Amino acid sequence: MSGVAVSPSEQGRALWLSTIAFTVCFAVWTIFAIIGIQIKKDLGLSETQFGLLVGTPILTGSLIRLLLGIWSDQYGGRVVYTITMLSAAVMTGLLTFAYDYTTFLIAALGVGIAGGSFSVGVAYVVKWYPKEKQGTALGIFGAGNVGAAVTKFAAPVIMIAYGWKTVALVWAIALAITAVIFFLFTKDDPDLARRRASGQKPEPLSAMMEPLKNIQVWRFSLYYFFVFGGFVALALWLPRYLIGVYGLDIATAGMVGAMYSIPASIFRAYGGHLSDKYGARTVMYWTFLVAVVCTFILAYPPTQYVVEGIRGPIAFSTRMGLLGFMAVAFVLGFFMSLGKAAVYKHIPVYYPDRVGAVGGVVGLVGGLGGFVLPIAFGALNDLTGVWQSCFWLLFVIAAVSLIWMHLAVRQMEKAAAVAGVPVQNLPELPEMQPIHGVALAGALAATGAIQDWRPENKAFWDQTGKAIARQNLWISVPCLLLSFAVWMVWSVVVAKLPSVGFAFTNEQLFWLASLPGLSGATLRIFYSFMPAIFGGRLWTTLATWSLLIPALGMGFAVQNPETPYWIFLGLALLCGFGGGNFASSMANISFFFPKSEKGNALAINAGLGNLGVSVVQFVVPLAITAGVFGALGGAPQTATVGGVTSTLWLQNAGFVFVPFIIASAFAAWFGMNDIATMKASFADQAVIFRRTHNWIMCWLYTGTFGSFIGFSAAFPLLSKILFPEINALQYAFLGPLVGALARAGAGKPCDRIGGGRITFWVFIAMSLGVGGVLYAIGMKGDASAFPVFFASFLFLFAATGVGNASTFQMIPAIMRLEVARLEPQMSQPERVKQSDKEAAAIIGFTSAIAAYGAFFIPKSFGTSIAMTGGAGAALYGFLGFYLSCIAITWWFYTRPGGLLFDTEHGVPASPASPLPTPAE
């Protein structure tokens, strides 16, 4: 950006008006994706002719980009942008006078002028922003690709009502109005203003064309051929494809096609951000890897198979349903949008004074992909007669691009190793090596883990830390919520298995409800150390992806009553992946916040994450009553309860979470951060096993969280057994909901009042709650028995929720005092760092031990019922445990002289003061 002063309002106006203008231009540029279908029908065109028709505007828009980009650098983007839009508006209006295939092709050449606006907008926008913000600015501008989705949504409705000519006129008028508004409300870019003020003349055309002699510009453009050219080609082709493959009408085809166009457009801005954060090369690798997988899936045509089996032929077929197509298209579009941003991120860095020219030629090559590919798609259809052949071609392009890029990168790195050149001095992509100077080293590399993290420093926290911490927290919450949902899904499913034909005993059903708690608790022991070893971002991503295994496995297993019991046992154990995630999630989030906000942050993460239990007990009973996934989800089951027959899709209990798991895993990978100071080996963290308070807090947290998760797992089945006349499933979600919301809301009071004092009263409340449940069981047969039973459990859930927050608030406070006492040789910053590490590890480890409540509480109820015929024995055992927790909390923490007494009563604690704990 030039030295001319620019106000933020001028920057914003230039960016957003340019983006809106590009959106309208792109809508016009892809107009033939919709009106071309009617024109094909009217003129009786072949698939190849149709491909040429929809691709012709792309040809003009591509070829003109180079010249328009150069003119923008010479004369200013504001004037060139306005003239471009007005010219395209006139040509789009003249489209209504075409009468045969030749005149339509000629008119389409004129409509294509709208596509040239991209290079103009890039050259105009980039001059308003400094280098460190150009990637994001260009990403936002490039999101104007969403104009393709605008055409798909709006054009079919207008065409059905008024005909294709009206569509052309409306689009032409909209573009002309946009041109006028753009010209009136924007200013000349700072570079042009500087040149005019100094009397400097524009550089000649020959100087502007100079960078185009470099071969790397053209090689680099080939990446854009796929990520942008492929996007444009599919945006044009998909409505026709969807009508042919799925028999959709034009309006529905347009809306479904938008499932590809929207993510392939609006996430381009995010791609610029990710390129800054993780490196352009990483984004390109992900783009091509995912594109190869998606295009391979989409390329597989419906096929009938016959296998000669032992007992005769076994026939089956493969066919992707519409929902599956939409899901894969969405993912493909999302990653292509990231790739587009990663490519253009390089241009202002390497060619700051030739953005229009270089951006024009890269856009030209990319746009040519949008012209060539639709024609190739049509030709392949005519040659092969297979609709999926278009994806064959895209698969080959993506695979070749990925292999070529990887081999080029490896060759560059090997050559650098031989020459003794450090890897960090190399460009992200080898195409840029001939022009990659010392000043550009690391310019596009990943920023990696956050090296400077000082949340206790108020200035740092207010300016930088708070926004990063909150972003990580709000991405962590849905990942944790889904983890709890998958962990507790058996608590709902087991109650339905007998009704659909599974001959399992009550004891077997209690085992299924209990085993996720056993495996989840065991995994937590290991998971609690993983964020510090692997990094919170990587581990959260992997842990979230792992939820797909039990979710999909359950969905397939419950469809056949002949499925062996041992498979269900295995799946129940695998659901423990969800339980294990809590330990790593809490350990990770604890690093991001200062001491004064840890309690609230952990309460929000855990409390809203705990909502997954309530979500599963509310959503699953609804999801299993409808064929949410159509043919993709499998056939329904017939359920019989009390002689009443109904239809259930029990597999939806697992399948319903799959799309959300995928979305959350991507969000974790692309949106979360690693903190360099978090890194620690298992040996570093193992010091917690020598800390007495680690074991004391394990006992107390088992009393709070162990009760919450154990009662959540046991309540639906326990209610069904004790009160068979009540449909308790419709109320089961309320208990976990109350507990989760209580936890989320208790964070700030705990930070203000003190976790120890609140924990003490929580265990008194829980003891009263157990007494209420025992009283209700004794009333069995009375009309008010179930209401008292249910109300007592709700009170218990609320108390556990508050206790979950208060116990976790205690841990960082305890370790600040303990590390100061036990490690006096450390400096104050070292003590803070060490106490944070130990507190995070203890939070994870205590959550692991407490999670065994998800196994022991349901199992205790099952054993109590089997041995005594009632649940009373188990409840008396829980009551005794809570009484011990009251005594422990008072003795060690809240009595005068207790560890937290001075801190929670406003008296600064002395590390040297006597403590009611044994020496370590």
From TrEMBL:
Its main location: membrane. Keywords: Cell inner membrane, Cell membrane, Membrane, Nitrate assimilation, Transmembrane, Transmembrane helix, Transport. InterPro entries: MFS, MFS_dom, MFS_trans_sf, NO3_transporter, NO3_transporter_NarK/NarU-like. GO terms for cellular component: plasma membrane. One of its GO terms (biological process) is nitrate assimilation. It holds the Pfam family MFS_1. It is found in: Cell inner membrane. Residues 13-413 form the Major facilitator superfamily (MFS) profile domain. It is a multi-pass membrane protein. CDD domains: MFS_NRT2_like (cd17341). It comes from the Bacteria. The keyword Cell membrane applies. The keyword Transport applies. GO terms for molecular function: nitrate transmembrane transporter activity; nitrite transmembrane transporter activity; secondary active transmembrane transporter activity. The chain crosses the membrane at residues 14-37, 49-68, 80-99, 105-126, 138-162, 168-186, 217-238, 250-271, 283-300, 320-343, 355-380, 386-405, 473-497, 509-527, 539-559, 565-587, 608-633, 653-672, 693-716, 728-746, 758-778, 784-806, 839-861, 873-893. PANTHER family: HIGH-AFFINITY NITRATE TRANSPORTER 2.3. Belongs to the major facilitator superfamily. Nitrate/nitrite porter (TC 2.A.1.8) family. This is MFS transporter. The lineage of its organism: Bacteria, Pseudomonadati, Pseudomonadota, Alphaproteobacteria, Hyphomicrobiales.
